[in-house]
């Protein structure tokens, strides 16, 4: 990373280092990237590109430690497939194949494992991406939490698409695929530690069909995409503002938040913009392609709520702003701390 | 898998399910493959093959949960890189790129993490394979054991090589790269639970240079390769005997076992053939290429101890036999149970 000189000086690892917000960035940019990726990495994205004898591949991996293992609308097995499919899609790549590992805690009921293996198989089938290999490890009781899943995926990068924060320009439009916060609040409520109930389900789903539709009609105008998981939409757009050295100005009214998510956030003192999603994404599209891109998303089943939520401006540099319906603006910061640990 | 109808009926997951032996096979073939890979998998190998628009890629992933994190000759970070490089090499593929995830336990000292990140970076540099991406999760204290690492890798499959148990024929020669059991016994002793000491280090190293040398001189004769990690040489060769429907007849005297490994095994009642390795591999080579293959391995630094250790015969079908110096033979079974948990 050319843009930063981050030093990681924290003495111990804390939950916040895994939350996707500021502490995560400090760990990644201050410790992991300088050693592991100093020569290879130009930009932190959901998937990396690898040249394989003339074919441009997208390559990605994620570990899943969500708690509880099952929640309304999904489970760890389902998000372990969809999340990796979506990271490839966010790289403009049609998913080709996945490999997966299980870290199992001794004592786990075989029926729980079977349930998650079935969930993975169904999700892979729905996404149309085969699982071609894997690995299983078992650790002693008390050295994991049921099971952790890691899924790596490769995809073929569409040659029509060139995604990079460096390509984002003032005037580009910010498009969001649907309502935010469903996944994070669903998982939080599923823990049962709060005396709250809501008719809400995780939004986990494969995003490739939406991206494929976008590419068909708007490839030349597609600048940057991200599925805002940990840290939420606010964190994803702050990273964009920083990497692209632009302002992201949001029309806060246009960002859909279901009443149940908004209500839970109000009670808990959380901002929906910081809540994790699993099945939504944000795309930056040049102005001349914005309308056709939104139309294309709306035509894909499940994309009916796609809309423009803001635009890129030159100033204030590296800042995300939200304009309210009353004309006021507020600065939207990255997530700090970890209000919702182990959300994916 | 066409060859088996395994049913997984164990009620709970136990450490033995992760040991690489019979219980692992039951879990994999009875539960994981039938759901996840029923359409894609023809043979369980270290790496899977994926067609990427005309390029034959090898794709692999492994999780690493070794305990302790550091041991003589290596550490979790080093084996997390070498192990994945080696799985690609065993698929006859030159490693192209890796991605990696860390599951960190809250409370882990940052200095411990830094040490392992440095170990990963050094191992990747030594192997000549870039790390291009990753993911980090943090779980609560007591929900992991320091850190777990998962590494996925892709490689370009050498078009001259066609590796499959189906290609193995009676008369083919069994070639082993060096002494066995170093890694498993080193890790076991590093735990300090036994009142044993030995001047022994893990054999972890990248195997691609050896495979590259083999391919150069013996590609048409190269039938099958495996790095015998969990479950040891005995388990790897039993899988071969079963998949290829042949007998593997070993000359037990030719299999090198260091005195420290043999001594520890005798005290503990273990068979060196069941002990995990990280930096050795076994290759099945057609008889006309066997000598040139061994010569090529010996010329690669660290390959001086490569030698022929046996041959493939038609009968007794699906069995591994070892001949002793006194002319007796014994049946070598797969690993049963888990004498050495969390060895990689």
UniProtKB/TrEMBL annotation, chains A, B:
Q: Which SUPFAM superfamilies match?
A: PurM C-terminal domain-like (SSF56042), PurM N-terminal domain-like (SSF55326)
Which residue numbers delimit the PurM-like C-terminal domain? Answer: 169-317
Output the InterPro entries linked to this UniProt entry.
HypE, PurM-like_C_dom, PurM-like_C_sf, PurM-like_N, PurM-like_N_sf
Q: Which residues form the PurM-like N-terminal domain?
A: 45-156
What Pfam families does this protein's entry cite? AIRS (PF00586), AIRS_C (PF02769)
Q: Biological process GO terms, please? A: protein maturation
| Recorded family membership | Belongs to the HypE family.
Give the protein's recorded name.
Hydrogenase expression/formation protein HypE
Q: What is the lineage of its organism?
A: Bacteria, Bacillati, Bacillota, Bacilli, Bacillales
């Amino acid at each position: 990373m050319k843009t930063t000189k981050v030093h990681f000086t924290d003495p111990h690892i804390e939950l916040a280092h895994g939350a996707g917000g500021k502490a995560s960035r400090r760990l990644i940019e201050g410790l992991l990237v300088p050693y592991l990726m100093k020569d290879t990495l130009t930009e932190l994205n959901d998937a990396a590109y690898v040249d394989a004898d003339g074919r441009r591949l997208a390559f990605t991996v994620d570990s899943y430690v969500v708690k509880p293992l099952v929640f309304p609308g999904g489970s760890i097995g389902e998000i372990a497939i969809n999340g990796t499919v979506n990271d490839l899609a966010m790289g403009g790549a049609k998913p080709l194949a996945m490999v997966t590992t299980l870290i199992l805690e001794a004592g786990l009921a075989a029926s729980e494992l079977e349930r998650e293996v079935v969930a993975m198989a169904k999700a892979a089938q729905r996404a149309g991406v085969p699982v071609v290999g894997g690995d299983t490890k078992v650790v002693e009781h008390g050295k994991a939490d049921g099971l952790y899943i890691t899924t790596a995926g490769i995809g073929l990068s569409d040659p029509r698409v060139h995604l990079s924060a460096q390509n984002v320009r003032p005037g580009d439009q910010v498009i969001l695929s649907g309502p935010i916060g469903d996944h994070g609040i669903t998982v939080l409520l599923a823990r049962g530690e709060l005396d709250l109930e809501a008719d809400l389900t995780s939004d986990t789903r494969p995003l490739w069909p939406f991206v494929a539709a976008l590419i068909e009609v708007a490839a030349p105008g597609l600048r940057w995409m991200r599925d805002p998981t940990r840290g939420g939409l606010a964190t994803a757009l702050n990273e964009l503002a920083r990497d692209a050295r632009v302002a992201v100005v949001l029309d806060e009214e246009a960002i859909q938040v279901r009443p149940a998510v908004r209500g839970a956030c109000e009670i808990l003192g959380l901002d929906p913009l910081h809540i994790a999603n699993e099945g939504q994404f944000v795309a930056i599209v040049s102005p001349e392609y914005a309308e056709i891109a939104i139309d294309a998303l709306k035509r894909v089943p499940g994309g009916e709520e796609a809309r423009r939520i803001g635009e890129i401006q030159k100033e204030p540099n590296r800042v995300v702003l939200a304009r309210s319906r009353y004309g006021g603006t507020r600065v939207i910061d990255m997530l700090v701390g970890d209000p919702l640990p182990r959300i994916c």
